[in-house]
Amino acid sequence: MYQTIASHVKSNLKTNLQGKGVGNPGAEIGDVIRKLREERGQRATQLAKLAGIDPRTFAAIEKGRIKNPSFQNLRAIAGALGVSPADFFYLAEATQFANLYHGSSKGEFSFQSADHKFHLVSFTPLIPYFFIGKVVMQANARIKADALPVKGYIFLQVILGKFSVTVNQEEHFIKEGEHFLLNGRLPHQFTNPSMRESAFLLVTVPSFLGIV
Predict the structure, then answer these.
(1) Does CATH number 1.10.260.40 belong to domain 5-96?
(2) What's the rounded Cα separation, in Å, for the pair 32 and 39?
(3) Which is more confident, 122 or 97?
(4) pTM tops 0.70, yes or no
(5) Which of 93, 144, 160, 162 would give a disulfide with 125, using CB separation of 3.0 to 4.6 Å?
C-alpha cells in the first residue's frame, strides 16, 4: 500500500531540501518565521537561543538579508517553533499567491503513485485553503479515502472517460463533462472502471495536502 498522496508530496519536498541551501526563499520565509515567533510571544533573541543559532544570524534570516539560509538553520528554527521546515514554504507560498497567480499547463508539481496506477498534477501552489489539480487514472485503478484526507469538500469533474464514486457503500457513475461533490469526511473511493486511461479535475476545500 502507498502512503497518502499528502505524505508523499511533503516527504519529497523535505528530501529535496535536505543537505543543501534553500533556493532563494528570500524575505517571505523570514516573514513567516517572524509571524510565527510573534504569535508565540517570543523575542528574537529567545528563539535564536532555543534554536541554538547566533542571534545575528537569526536576525539576518528573519529580515531576509540571508537569501539562502541552510536547511540545518531552518530545521533548528522550525524545531524551536514546533513546526516542520516545509511549513515555512507552505505558508510563504500561501502569502505570495494570495491575490494573483499565473500558472502553466504543466502545473506546479506532480505526483506518481507507487503502483503507477494514477498520476496527480497540481495547478495551484502549496497553499492550505484549497487544492485544484488533475488526476489521471489507469484502467481499473482505485483511490481510497485515506489517500485524499479531506476534512471539507471534494469536487471532481470528469475530463476524459468515466468514473465510479462510492460513498457510504453506494456507487455513483459519472461520465465525461459531469461533476460530483461530496463531503470528504464520508467513507469514499474513486474507481476508473474503464479499460482505458481516464482523468478528472479535482478540487478540495481545504487542500488535502494541509499544513502539518
Answers:
(1) yes
(2) 11
(3) 122
(4) no
(5) 93
> Distances from the Cα of 129 to the Cαs of 83, 90, 95, 192, 203, in angstroms?
18, 11, 11, 28, 11
Distance of alpha carbon 161 from alpha carbon 176, whole angstroms: 6
Q: Which residues of 135-156 are buried (b: 16+ CB within 10 A; e: fewer)?
A: bbbbeebbbebebbbbeeebbb
Half-sphere exposure for 99 (CA within 13 Å, toward CB) = 0
Domain with CATH 1.10.260.40 in the chain: 5-96
**pLDDT tens by residue, 159-174:** 999 999 999 999 999 9
Look up the CATH number of domain 109-205. 2.60.120.10
Instruction: Name residue, grid cell 522550525.
Output: 78
CB of 143 closer than 8 Å to CB of 200: no
- The Cα 13–Cα 19 span in angstroms is 12
Question: Which residues, in sequence order, are bridge partners of residue 120?
Answer: 111, 135
